[in-house]
Write a structure and sequence with these properties.
elongated, 9 helices, mainly alpha
Length: about 180
């Protein structure tokens, strides 16, 4: 339950920051978020021993600490940029040093064929492109109004992510149906 509550805070991060900045100094928002990020990092560390989750957590805690000490709404609004760039770097690294992130996720659920491994590399690359575009748009919104920043980062980016998930799921179903290659032993 604690994972869901703490995770929800970070899904709702743009809304929390948007509303918080109307009444509270950025330092106080950052203080609460640093505390919650540390809790999230601690609990995810206890239950999930995945290095890339640790990298993202550390990047976010550093960003929030900088915001805390600089009383900076600008730094608070960089959270979605840092998240996207963190995931981009992890996914790119996994392409350079296989297996790719998507291959790891897929192989944890299913036995993969030779073609499926190639497919998962391509999906990883698609996610890299998504993270790059999302980071770029998120960065632009930092310089726009708080409303536009919150709308894009709190709604539009999640919808786009959902569309990508759904599209990939549809393509994957067709791929699995047509895949006749051998399984990797």
């Amino acid at each position: 339950m604690k994972h869901i509550v703490i995770g929800s805070v970070f899904v709702l991060y743009p809304l929390i920051v948007f509303l918080g900045l109307k009444w509270i100094e950025p330092t106080y928002i950052a203080l609460v978020l640093v505390f919650l990020a540390c809790l999230r990092f601690y609990y995810s560390k206890a239950s999930i021993n995945i290095p890339f989750i640790k990298i993202v957590g550390i990047n976010i805690i550093i960003l929030l600490m900088l915001s805390l000490f600089n009383n900076s709404s600008f730094l608070l609004k960089l959270y979605p940029v840092v998240m996207s760039l963190s995931f981009l770097s992890i996914f790119l690294y996994s392409l350079a040093k296989p297996p790719s992130v998507i291959t790891l996720i897929a192989s944890a659920r299913d036995k993969l064929t030779i073609n499926a491994v190639e497919y998962t590399k391509k999906v990883t690359l698609v996610w890299c492109v998504f993270f790059l575009i999302n980071a770029s748009i998120s960065l632009v919104t930092v310089f726009l109004s708080d409303e536009i920043w919150a709308f894009y980062n709190g709604l539009v980016s999640y919808v786009l992510m959902g569309v990508l998930f759904l599209g990939e799921w549809i393509v994957r179903k067709r791929f699995k149906k047509n895949d006749q290659s051998d399984y990797i032993t």
